[in-house]
Amino acid sequence: MRAAAGDACSLLPSEAVRQATGEAVASSKATTAAAGKLRQSQCFYTLPTFTNSISVTLTSAEGSRDAARELWKRQFHGEADKDAPAAEEKEAGAKAEPVSGVGDEAYWVHSFVGNLYVRKGNRFFRISLGGKMTDDERRARAKALAAVALRQLR
């Protein structure tokens, strides 16, 4: 299975989520939004222990091949663009810790959940994990899930 053009739910098979969390996926819900030159597809994997549920958001270009990469640069490298970055982008970039060995570039952002942002070419995705575990445990799970998602993006 390969990721359809921007389909976040095709990035993580239910079995990969079960292996990473120890819980079977109860349901998954896909949503899509387009804004300007960007398209975001999100998949929310509901788990029996709701706080362990996982969200995956895939950001890709819509009409402009480099739009997602430009957003990535603003978010994580502070590169200015004619459009002012959203407050959420500034916050993610400010708290980001580089993660090696994942995709072309990756960052871990901890808020009340853990978020792993991974760029591959001109697309990137975010895996968000909650639950009662340490930040290191969340990061390890997110990296394992990212490895699966990256295989689907090829």
Descriptive notes:
The chain has 154 residues and is α+β, with helices and mostly antiparallel strands. It has one domain: Protein Transport Mog1p, Chain A (3-Layer(aba) Sandwich). It contains four helices and seven strands; from the N terminus they run αβββααββββα. The chain has helices spanning 14-21, 67-77, 87-95, 135-153, and strands at residues 27-35, 38-46, 54-61, 97-98, 105-110, 114-120, 123-129. Strands 1-2-3-7-6-5-4 form a seven-stranded antiparallel β-sheet, with helices on both faces. Strand 4 and strand 5 form a beta hairpin. Helix 1 (14-21) packs antiparallel against helix 4. Mean pLDDT is 84; it is low at 82-91.
| Alpha carbon gap, first and last residue | 10 Å
- Enumerate the strands of the largest sheet in spatial order, edge to edge or round the barrel: 1-2-3-7-6-5-4
Give the topology string: H per helix, E per strand.
HEEEHHEEEEH
CATH architecture: 3-Layer(aba) Sandwich
Assigned CATH class: Alpha Beta
Q: Segments where pLDDT lies below 50 for 5+ residues? A: 82-91
CATH topology: Protein Transport Mog1p, Chain A
The share of residues in extended strands comes to 25-35%
Summarize the structure.
The protein has 154 residues and is α+β, with helices and mostly antiparallel strands. The chain contains four helices and seven strands. The relative contact order is 0.18.
